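Input chain follows. Return structure tokens only.
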Amino acid sequence: MQAAVETRHDRPAMTVRRKLAAYLALTKPRVIELLLVVTAPTMILAQQGLPSLWLLIATLIGGAMSAGSAGAFNCYIDRDIDRVMKRTQGRPLVTGELSDREALVFAYGLGIASIVWLGLFTNWLAAALSLGAILLYVVFYSLILKRRTAQNIVWGGVAGCMPVLIGWAAVTGDLSWPPFILFLIIFLWTPPHYWPLSMKYKDDYAAAGVPMLAVVRGRAQVGLQVILYAWATVACSLLLIPIAGMGLVYSTVAVVTGVWFIYETHRLYNLAIRHQQVSPMRVFHGSIAYLSLLFLAVGIDPLLPF
């Protein structure tokens, strides 16, 4: 009898926890994590030192809400293809843990909150850039590009570049060349990051009718495009050295990690053209490590005297 009573009392708590977990999943927390990784170092570079702790926290909170809103909108828009793709069948709108209405209200609420938050606690330029990031991801990528062109991830990736502009604007109140170079680094990095993932889930995207490059082109062509964008990414990362006056730490990390990143993309291409078994997720995870190390150096370099 006591066990039955405990079970009845526990059930509402379990329901609340599952609901909160579903809302969290709707925001795509792994994407948020990566976006925050590039925001904080950008703010340190903009300040040429450590910005105030409150400004840093406020910007990261606002950025997380903004990215979470965009992710929730994307889950709502893509709920039909998420039901088809094995990789996304655990998302809340597919499992039924959240209704379409709940997801849409949450997405709007979080997006509005992010803009107001950034406007009040950072500045309205950062807030405007946050709104632009949401619109780019939701309208430009999710509604217009994703299902129409194999270049979807190239131009749709613009939204993922916005956090560096938001972080810089939060500190300085304006924009200059260094944040645009950081923007371009992420823009060029996105295809060699995402296209290997699309190679692994090629059948998923084909079944959903999404024309990712791996669906409409062969492995060799995808591998070649990954190489070209990787070279462009590394070249752009070196351009930051003279433009932002980067020191020894960043310069060394940019060269060493850049060589490693390019090597991994060439390895993928060589296996593809030889019709051998490829490991695209090695490049996918490697690209995350590359960007994380590069931006870690962006954040450390201004704090050192050399």
